[in-house]
Amino acid sequence: MVTATNLGYPYVGAKRELKKLVESFWSSKITEQELRTGYSKIQESHWKLQQEKGIQHIPSGEYTLYDRVLDTAQQFGAIPQRYQHIKSPLEQFFAMGRGLQRAATATTEKVDVPAMEMKKWFDTNYHFIVPEFEADQKFTLQNPRAVEQFKAAKALGIQTRPVLVGPVTFLHLGKAAKGTEPFETLSLLSKVLPLYIELIKQLEAAGAEWVQIDEPVLVFDLDAKVKTALEEAYKTIKAQTSIKVLVAAYFGRVESNINAVINHVDAVHLDLVRAPEELDTVLPLLKNGQVLSLGLVDGRNIWINNLSKSIDLAEKAVKALGQDRVFIAPSCSLAHSPFSTTFEKKIQAKNPELFSWLSYAAEKCSEVSIIAKALNQGRDSVKEALAANAAAIESRRTSPQTKNPEVRERVAKVPAAAWKRPSPFSVRREAQVKKLNLPLFPTTTIGSFPQTKDIRIARQKYAKGELSQADYDVFIKAEMKKVVEFQERVGLDVLVHGEPERNDMVEHFGHLLHGYDFTENGWVVSYGSRCVKPPVIFGDVSRRQPMTIDEIVYAQSLTKLPMKGMLTGPVTMMKWSFVRDDIPANELCAQIALALRDEVVDLETAGIPCIQVDEPAIREGLPIRRADWDSYLEWSVGSFRLSTAGVRNETQIHTHMCYSDFNDIFDAIAALDADVITIENSKSDEKLLKIFETKQYTNEIGPGLYDIHSPRVPSYEEMKTRFGDMLKYLPEQLLWVNPDCGLKSRGWPEVEAALVNMVAVAKYYRSLKATKA
Fold first, then answer.
1. CB 3.0-4.6 Å disulfide test: which of 88, 131, 521, 673 passes with 343?
2. Longest Cα pair distance anywhere in the chain, in angstroms?
3. Is position 281 within any domain?
4. Helical segments of 99-188, H only
5. Residue 607 annotated in ligand binding
6. What average pLDDT does range 714-728 have in this prediction?
7. Is 709 one of the catalytic residues?
8. Is 610 marked within a binding site?
9. Does this model's pTM top 0.85?
């Protein structure tokens, strides 16, 4: 029989229960035991739900309190030296993920450690913690979570399929430990592989029949060394274990990389949402009873599956292999999907047509089961489900909600001159220096300030109609006034309004644009306990009316210092939404860019001297395969320029990017032609700065001086040293001083202490320069 399977489930819970548990533990409101009891109940409910949906291979071991890769690092004893003195495994785990700063007490020692580096997980908006390794790394198997979770499910009568982050992915995504010489991390495979085998044997002894080993690096452009490592790893696992092994690749095409593992595993998983053509390529390679897992249901978006097309594709596999050798699955772990549409009462009531197009993790499990049942028992066995699905698919294809002829005509007729600023940066900079009159090493922030409890309560009351528009406006203006006065007091040079009116940098603007709708419970994890609720782009996008003018103009009226208008860029507006998949991405991005262009021009007309258009998602959206890069970079960079190129020379355009590898697309970043770019720097060991040894960047730049994703406050001396390092790489006249990212998630005491130190650093280096002069 064809088997209905799943690769992973949204571990945060139906209504973010895990987030609330973890954050309660961090604030000492619950004990470690209460945390463990709480998350065990969430796990149990997830296993039972998947079982009820008809999933036969239910994943376990992928559940995490912060990050699966961080789990793997701690499980195999890859603990950087700076965390090894922390005795509690759980406290150590969280310190590695988010940093820890604690004064000594009668019972505890002083701890002051920053978080480890955080990067985007392939081309998703999920962030993983980058493992660190020593050249002589010693691995030890400790607290094997996969075994613990398998046994917990088994005690409930649920046979699960344990999930592990694969050894090659684990090593390949890692880096040399901080302060050590770079080395080839895959050279450690022979050291860590015996522990993987020991772990797999423990799972086998516990009663596991299958183990799922995730090797998403299979979709990268891999050199011979990595392919050799993959072959060595799975040849060794096959020789030394007897459990059935499924190797899962997702997020793209495996191409010839599959040859490294296919002869040494019992099953392979392919992402046929991203690469349906690979079914024909891989089918002839299978032999000796090997199973093919078909990733037919999109694990990364919220649209219903076209069940008839999926069944057609699966039937080809069944015809070639037989039913027993085919698994049906989502394309990737459903951890990248929201929990269930059952909570979306508002969309269901106000826009039932749109609701009929939606499918979250729980519904995707049902789709997997329907496809498997159709293959096992014939299409008539699920004819009602297929009929309802076909009607919804046709409804979406023909709905007038999805099309606006005026928007499409405007995109088609954009003049060539609209795609770039009329003058080069050197000319613009001269005009901006004259207008802004900023000091050397100007200081600023990225945009948001703390979203306090009072702000959240006011927003909730306003949304429920318990606070009038007039009273809400008074409240927001008072919050902006506090932020402006605070920035003046600590000595910042270019100010922001603090964004108290914004719940999210994408959702806020989505409410002000045509073509967007919004979920009640469409939460997905971004990093750690941090969740985002992306808006839904279902139709053509245009601006309803000016979006930010009133707030920014009011904020500017409170100060004589320059104020930045704050917008989210077109690529990020698209990538950080649940994006429509029924028109080309470049066309949709141009629609958003034109809506933003109108806003940028209106801000300039209103007298705002600096306008920041954030694009943290440009690197994230970069296709995984290099062969696809050029076309993507052409339209994504073009869309940013389209959104920003309508202003005069003296208007300073800023942008911001964070938590990604930028070195590969340095030329594209330069091609954005922003007057000032601020970038993440502190968590990545300043490796980005090294590119300036070989590449010249002529526009102004602010590498982040400290990590805002940690509650830890870096000292003045620490920041001073870091800024001194920046001066080794960048011309002083182009250098800005700023944090890594926005301050929304931080508390006011942390923000004030950090910004006071940051401004002091700028003043120190200005005085140093003045003394030398």
1. 521
2. 85
3. yes
4. 145-155, 167-172
5. no
6. 93
7. yes
8. no
9. yes
